[in-house]
Design goal:
Elements lengths: L7 E4 L2 H12 L4 E3 L6 E5 L3 H11 L8 E3 L3 H4 L8 H9 L4 E6 L16 E5 L4 H9 L4 E2 L14 H8 L5 E4 L10 E5 L5 E5 L41 E2 L9 E5 L7 E2 L6 H17 L4 E4 L8 H12 L1
Parallel strand pairs: 1-8, 2-8, 4-6, 5-9, 11-14, 12-13, 12-14
Antiparallel strand pairs: 2-3, 3-7, 4-7, 5-6, 9-10
The structure holds adenosine monophosphate and magnesium ion.
Length: 316
């Protein structure tokens, strides 16, 4: 793909991490591995750098970004972590859990990070390469998924290049992302209650005992607060049929468990493996010469909730 940049790929070793940090420091764009998916990072304290993320992704400017930091202390420089938030952060960071928190008025973050909201989404990732990169950066990193807006999320460097080659400075290649679906997002309300805005790898049953606002947010009913939850997202560019037992001759089949396919999310019926392979299978289906995609049923418990959430949006 042609573009303004020649996109480099660097292995995730000491030299690659140093190169990534220096590009980011200068306001550039680097695709970075995390435990969830590859992120498209820029320094969150620079308006021109953050603007480049929206431009490279073709992301609508009403869709805010997640800010990645080293630890809860660094998060507290940008957001207010009181009560419930501090307890959740102290217990479950680092990990695939994003907290939407009141944004500090003296945060010094690029306004576009929050897309006009009074809140900011913060995460402390656990991926060792992302942690090593954050340790080298004396600034926070805004990073949405490293794909063209609305398209399938990337879990390998090749997936990133498939939609952003020529549009970013560097891909830091650390192989496949272990969890494979985007972080769980929780909004922490002023009264200390919380609400799930997006299901993900973090198991919410861990939060039992903490006050909650009750039912999880209805994704269709909360487009203003969590615009990334738009009904159509993660789209492979072809019709997707869910809960299929068998493909038609026109369909590329994504199997699960005992239901076979051209590829399988997990032949063993393992939901963690299915999450890790979800976007890879969708990328394979998008690239195939079949005009349609069928997907076997996936059980809706544990990480299966997040898998089915992404599949529904891919099919919408
Ligand atoms: P992505 O980084 O592509 O996974 O998208 C980030 C997700 O975080 C989107 O669903 C956003 O809507 C959500 N998000 C980021 N910041 C906020 C915020 N301040 N309030 C609510 N949702 C947010
Ligand atoms: Mg995304």
């Amino acid at each position: 793909m042609s573009g303004k940049y020649v996109t480099e790929t660097a292995p995730a070793n000491r030299a690659g991490i140093a190169r990534a940090a220096s590009i980011l420091r200068a306001g550039g764009l680097v695709a970075v591995p995390t435990e969830t998916v590859y992120g498209l990072a820029a320094r969150a304290d620079s308006a021109p750098a953050v603007e480049k993320i929206y431009h490279a992704k073709g992301r609508p400017d009403f869709n805010p970004l997640i800010v990645h930091v080293r630890d809860a202390d660094q998060a507290a420089r940008y957001a207010t972590l009181s009560g419930t938030a501090a307890r959740i952060a102290g217990t479950w960071w680092p990990g695939p859990l994003t907290l939407v928190l009141p944004r500090r008025t003296d945060a010094g973050l690029a306004p576009a990070v929050s897309a006009g909201l009074p809140t900011v989404a913060m995460r402390v990732p656990s991926h060792p390469i992302m942690r090593a990169l954050l340790a080298e950066c004396d600034f926070p990193l805004a990073a949405p998924s490293a794909n063209r807006s609305g398209f399938i999320s990337p879990t390998t460097a090749a997936h990133v290049l498939a939609s952003l080659d020529g549009k970013i400075d560097l891909v830091l290649d650390a192989g496949a992302c272990p969890a494979g679906v985007e972080s769980t997002i929780l909004a922490i309300r002023e009264d200390g209650s919380w609400e799930e805005l997006r299901p993900g790898p973090f198991d919410l049953t861990a939060l039992r005992g903490l006050p909650a606002t009750g039912a999880p947010a209805d994704p269709a009913g909360a487009p203003v607060e969590a615009p990334g939850q738009l009904a159509s997202h993660y789209a492979p560019g072809k019709p997707v049929r869910l809960n299929s037992q068998e493909p038609t001759s026109e369909e590329f089949m994504i199997g699960f468990g005992s239901i076979p396919g051209d590829v399988s999310l997990s032949a063993a019926g393992d939901l963690a493996e299915a999450a890790a392979r979800l976007y890879s299978c969708l990328h394979d289906a998008a690239r195939s010469d079949k005009p349609r995609i069928a997907v076997a049923p996936v059980p809706g418990d544990g990480i299966g909730i997040a898998i089915n959430d992404r599949l529904r949006r891919a099919a919408a």
